[in-house]
Amino acid sequence: MELDPPRRRPSPILSNDVLPKDNLLKGAENRETLARILDKADQAIRTWEIALTDFLSPPELLEAEAIFARLTEVNCLAWGGYPQAERQRLAIARADIPLDASQVGVTALAIAGNFLFDSASHRDFLGSLLGTGLVRDKVGDIVLLGDRGAQAIVVPELADFLTASLVQVRSVKVKTQIMPLEDLRVRPPKVKELTTVEASMRLDAIASAGFGMSRSKMVDLINAGDVRVNWKPVSQASHPIATNDLIAIRGKGRLTIGEVMITKKQRYRINLKRFI
């Protein structure tokens, strides 16, 4: 008499290869995006194929990875074209399917032009990319090259379209070409450790010390919406900061908050790490 082969016990979270989205999305801040990501995970589970998301912002990525950490039968890998990329895509597969960066499709574009007399910002290049009809989720990081233009990372299926459609940024005519990822002009961030003593844990006080600028200038940046805490824009200079928080200012790097100690004079001695 032959015995039936032992059945695999179902995961406590997965049942019949269907994800309980309502439970997984409880308390999620980026609920709509995460729901789409979980649909991709369902697809990967059902088809045994690798599913790819569009580019995710850092808070979306953090929430997605936290959810997938609870799913023992799902494997995921983030990649945005280079190790420290801010915007990344997720490859999602069953846990027994290996993943590597080559399976996360991204394409680099060189956007070359003479911006010596009409300089363009990150916002200008992004606006021109979106002006071709793209949605934001199809665009990853943009690397500025000063008066020579920029480099952009996009989903591969739109690269040829952009080489034909992206012909101007601001008043400058540009030539857009596909380029190797290894030619991206990015460098590993330099790390600077420092300590500051502050009367409070206010954002403006800590950020001005960490980024080496006046407090009034920092307040201006905060009011303009250029400062993010844990990847979320913050518009209040008095926003409280805590250990392990991350403060980011576009074009000026990132600042992480380390150990905080109270001095004898009841002030805060804060260890900071700046990534430039």
Q: How does this structure look, described?
A:
- With 276 residues, the protein is α+β, with helices and mostly antiparallel strands.
- The protein folds into three domains: 21-103, Ribosomal Protein S8, Chain: A, domain 1 (2-Layer Sandwich), CATH 3.30.1370.160; 107-183, RRM (RNA recognition motif) domain (Alpha-Beta Plaits); 191-275, Roll (Structural Genomics Hypothetical 15.5 Kd Protein In mrcA-pckA Intergenic Region, Chain A).
- Helix content is 24%, strand content 28%.
- The chain is built from seven helices and 15 strands.
- It has helices spanning 21-24, 31-47, 58-68, 122-131, 159-165, 203-211, 215-223, and strands at residues 51-52, 74-79, 89-94, 107-112, 139-144, 149-154, 168-169, 172-173, 175-179, 191-198, 227-229, 232-233, 246-249, 253-262, 268-275.
- The chain has a six-stranded antiparallel β-sheet with strand order 10-15-14-13-11-12. The protein has a four-stranded antiparallel β-sheet with strand order 5-6-4-9, covered by helices on one side. Strands 1-3-2 form a three-stranded antiparallel β-sheet.
- A hairpin with a 2-residue loop joins strand 11 and strand 12 (232-233).
- Mean pLDDT is 91; it is low at 1-17.
